[in-house]
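Newbie here. two chains, one complex. Structure please?
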Amino acid sequence: MGEAKAVSHQDGFARSPCPESETESEEVARPAESSARSVLFGAARNISFGILGFAILFASWYLMWASGLVNRDLVPRPDEIFFRLVHDFAASGLAWDVLASVQRVLTGMVIGMALAIPAGIALAWYPVLGRIFQPVINSFRAIPPIALSPLVIVYLGIGEVARASILVYAAFFTSLIVIYEAVSAIEEIYIRAARVVGATETEIFRKIVIPLLVPNLFVALRLTLGVCWGTLVAAELLAADRGLGAVIQNAGNYFVIPDIYVGLVCIGAIALAMDAIIRKAMAVVVNWQERVER
Amino acid sequence: MMREADSAPIEFRSVSKYYGSGPLRHVVFDDLSLTIGENEFVAIVGGSGCGKTTLLNMAAGFTRPNSGTVLVHGEEVEGAGRDRGVVFQQYAVFPWLSVRQNIEFPLNLKCCKLDRAAKDRIVEHYLATTGLKRFENALPKALSGGMKQRVAIARAYAANPQILLMDEPFAALDAQSRGIMQEVLQKITAEERKAAVFITHSVEEAIYLADRIVVMAQRPAIFSEVITVPFGKNRTADMRLANEFIDLRRHIEGQLKH
């Protein structure tokens, strides 16, 4: 090994004694970014794979229906649901339900995360706080938000505030844990590297902790979004007259099975779209992250 | 009356470090003393786990000795400080900042704000010395390991420390980039003339770069030998092939085997 090294140095020296001029041959930086075309191709490929997944789902659904294994009176065909969806948008104001639900999810998410971010940072930054409150938080986190609805009705009634509070609860505990873990996991090496050049604690927080937290905020956002949509129906059980949860509830009460599916499809589709938007935004904002391609 | 050592850039005065207590106490090293002089480049070589990094971390202010003192220019080390630049083994380049912004980082802090022109002058200088000019706007993810360490070195120098502490900065590099980085560092230290402590596994690297080599033995960690390297400040890559170099290398490698 020693020999190999000696040879390489000799080699390097023969070409040029000046280190800078060697950068090109030895340590060329990888191209700053892959070409726009391959990015576009990658996106198109991912989308077509996604569509394939849905195609498989609907095809098997249709086959199940056609085979007669399921009761045809109780399980509608995919295309029936589609036409029902179009009908509901056009005739029964489904758009208002979608809007009401989206608004509730966003409100819950924004308030919940706005509370969780400073709380999570504080818990991780001051280990004593973390040790004191972590068990409390973990026990609260295990309580399904839907189990809170009776209490919420007693304390807050059945209005919009009551509904929002359940979503805020769900959003808060979901993102709190992500933020807490993210700040705890910040690599000491970056903090040291800043400290040795004279950064104050405030500067370390502002210039090191915050930038390193940003990718995890997106992770928290995605997880919270999922949990909020999952909790929405619970929140809309509190006598909501609008919203996708209400659509599902009412359809269930009146035994209009296609409408139940319409509500479910809307939740799935909107959650998928929101997640795609967040992922896109993350790829742009956190472009400095190394991504492992598999 | 002041002894000369009182104003030395770094002095380890009979420092000891151990972990745990009672029968479980693990002594890393006991009663070590070492003085690093003005403009002196000292390399510390030794096997894994002999306490080299702990020694450097004490000088950096990341950890304190259990007994003894570490003095920097006669003052006891209390914590990390801008007078001591550190280059780490792991790439501690900030991944969210471009090469230029990384080097500029120390110049944007409250303690040491500079005007635009002064800042640019310093950044341009170190971009040039480390051969990073063409990559100034690249993000670290696009750089190889050697390039990242150039950024780390440039950033450390940009803060204008009086002492440079380097903890196996090239350990993760392949032999070829390692050779190039040694030349980059050799050039920059010859220009800047700062006291430096350089930790390495590679005896060859130590001889090529250092004025003095401290050979650290393992368990109990002691300085088994302190060797003055008999070459001047201006060194070239091909001196590694000189008989004197090879003999010295063989001698130190022999020491490390014991």
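Moderator note: Chain B touches chain A through 56 residues (CB under 8 Å). Helices of chain B lie at 52-60, 99-104, 116-129, 145-158, 175-192, 203-209, 243-257. Thread marked as resolved.
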